[in-house]
Design a protein that fits this description.
This protein is an all-alpha fold. It has 13 helices and no strands. Helix 2 runs antiparallel to helix 3 and helix 9 packs across helix 10.
Length: 300
């Protein structure tokens, strides 16, 4: 494996899974502000991960589509423009209706239409879908009083929560069934433990660097160390990583492809089982540490 092949593997296992994250985080009592940061970061991480994967893949297979700036602008800015334009028009339609069922249908039309348009034009459908969700969430909050009158039973909110739960269940059932066909690489005992350690270190480094560079206040009154630990341990992997790994079968050597699948599966299981089942304990330990720090600062 040359350096570009290693980077491609990094692109495969790096994107976080918003479905897995949301399914677990909603059950452990995190504040809405912190949950929003983790979920939105996971969603944008998905879209950016796909764009980087396409870029590195084009270098490996020498397709000629390897100009990083052009590719990223096309994937990201094109997707954002389409999503905002379509979402703005469809939300205007939502504002004039008084039927909560139509709210659901319009929101489904928005995300589906935007995804189809972006995929047809060569933009990132994943990023466009994220922008649609954020736009509708922001716009619905602005007309919260009207929504409560029109939709007192919260059909709109309940529909998306139920759909999220169903997709979450289907995703992990499919991952479990596909595991039956996975062959173990002879390099797995060496590469897999190293991959898990490198994944955690790189995630912590990435969160630290981005937090320092943005210079913005950290949500939830966390300090930098506490925030890095929370964001690192809540970064769960899932279906996107597996889909990217399986998409490399056409141009990778069978032995390397087998290794890609092994590392991806172990990464998914480690983050979902080890991190997902302990994130609640980590969260409350961080809350306890934060409370003690704030009390100590108050005494000083």
């Amino acid at each position: 494996m040359d350096i570009w092949m290693c980077i491609l593997l990094g692109c495969v296992v790096s994107p976080t899974d918003p479905i897995a994250a949301t399914g677990i985080l909603n059950k452990i009592g995190l504040s809405k502000n912190v949950c929003s940061v983790i979920e939105n970061e996971s969603l944008f991480n998905d879209g950016t991960g796909v764009a980087l994967f396409v870029f590195v893949r084009s270098i490996i297979i020498q397709s000629g589509d390897s100009h990083f700036v052009i590719l990223m602008c096309k994937e990201i800015f094109g997707a954002v423009a389409v999503a905002l334009g379509v979402s703005f028009l469809l939300f205007k339609l939502m504002e004039i209706t008084k039927d909560p069922v139509r709210y659901i249908l319009i929101s489904l039309l928005d995300v589906s239409l935007v995804y189809v348009i972006c995929e047809h034009m060569g933009f990132s459908g994943v990023i466009a879908s994220v922008v649609c969700g954020m736009y509708f969430s922001y716009a619905m909050d602005k007309m919260e009083r009207r929504v409560k009158v029109i939709d007192p039973s919260e059909y709109y909110k309940d529909f998306w929560e139920i759909l999220e739960s169903i997709l979450n269940a289907v995703l992990f059932v499919m991952i479990g069934l596909m595991l039956l066909d996975v062959e173990i690489s002879r390099y797995a005992p060496i590469v897999i433990p190293a991959g898990i350690v490198i994944l955690l270190i790189s995630r912590a480094g990435g969160v630290t660097l981005s937090s320092v560079l943005t210079g913005r206040s950290i949500p939830g009154n966390y300090d930098l160390k506490e925030f890095v630990i929370l964001m690192t341990w809540s970064a769960l992997k899932g279906g996107l990583s597996l889909a990217l790994a399986m998409g490399t079968a056409e141009y990778l050597d069978p032995a390397i492809y087998k290794l890609f699948i092994n590392v991806t599966y172990v990464t998914i299981f480690f983050t979902v089982l080890a991190q997902g089942l302990t994130i609640k304990r980590v969260y409350f330990r961080l809350e306890e540490h934060k409370s003690n720090r704030i009390k100590l600062r108050g005494k000083v």
